[in-house]
Amino acid sequence: MTIYNFAAGPATLPDSVIKQIQDELPSINGSGMSIMEISHRSALFDNIINTAEQDVRDLMHVPENYHVLFFQGGGTGQFAAIPMNLATNHKRIALLDSGHWASRAGDEATNLGYQVDVLASTKDQHYQELPHYDEPISSNQYDYLHITTNNTIEGTAYHKIPQHGDVTLVGDLSSNFMAEEYNVKDFGLIFGGVQKNLGPAGVTLVIVRDDLVKPVKHIPSILNYNLFVKKNSMFNTPPVFNIYATGLVLKWLKDQGGIAEIEKRNKQKASLLYDFLDDSKLFANHIKESDRSLTNIPFTTGDEDLDKQAIQATAEAGLMNLKGHRSVGGLRASLYNAMPLEGVQALVDCLHNFEKQH
Ligand SMILES: Cc1ncc(COP(=O)(O)O)c(C=O)c1O
């Protein structure tokens, strides 16, 4: 039986990448040493990290005046790093509260002593649509506006970035990084853990405009953008294996035709499931149509017990990790870049059968 993994992250990776890692694990580039044993100060690793950076630049058309940095600590680490590095002027941040992770980012900044103003929230709508704020947002008032481009738990996404006046825009792309096209130039900073679309957990990608990187006192070195720029992301020991594996996924993505092509496929995959759900008399997705995510699709029968049975039926068919997040319930299918169309078809077939039986 073919197993398809619909987990929200860590998530499915391309089969060819797993195979390549397996083949190369005992000896990287004929060195007789495993990538897990290689010094980050070696020429071999220099080549790996520099190639990964260049591939990020090529794939996202990153302009020259942006840095591409590799951190540890996940998206959560960046919830702290971003205010510490960027909110140095007003110590005041604007936020669009589109769900759990946006809210967590706000809580972390508040906890660190920054003022966080939630300009709009759709909490009262159970985050089933995206918040928008129509007034201009001024850089005279705020250091930046924080948005979450894709809301992993709730299943919404800003396919077009919201208006934000002249304020610096910060985007949490954790769950749709390179799954759909965004213009890097629209943002001052974008970030996300790679463990959904781009690699194994352990690497956090940050792309930041040069003028936002400045010396800041009294912040931890491992979250200091200025130091990481100076040290080519190797201020301390980086996650060597994870950067290597991420590099392989980036190469795979290039081989697939890049982000434009993968976005086309992601739309096809998402439509297949949404069309089924919209026609279904048993299952439904409750997200406002224009705000629906391509990568995370929550759905439910509306009956907890029946949802449980559906999860059981999918697991028996080799369709794994479809249980919805505890805050939303129901089921959730994460259709990241490495999920093939056949996997989504298998899911739709299984749900269709389940519906016939119930
Ligand atoms: C949108 C979003 N932001 C942030 C995070 C937190 O990331 P991490 O677990 O890498 O700290 C997640 C995790 O799923 C996420 O989905």
Automatic annotation (TrEMBL):
**Which sites bind L-glutamate?**
41
Q: Which Pfam families has this protein been placed in?
A: Aminotran_5 (PF00266)
Into which EC class is this enzyme placed?
transferase
Q: How is the cofactor bound?
A: Binds 1 pyridoxal phosphate per subunit.
What does the UniProt entry say about where the protein is found?
A: Cytoplasm
Cited SUPFAM superfamilies: PLP-dependent transferases
The keyword Repeat is assigned to this record: no
- Family membership: Belongs to the class-V pyridoxal-phosphate-dependent aminotransferase family. SerC subfamily.
Subunit architecture: Homodimer.
**Record protein name field:** Phosphoserine aminotransferase
Q: Which gene encodes it?
A: serC
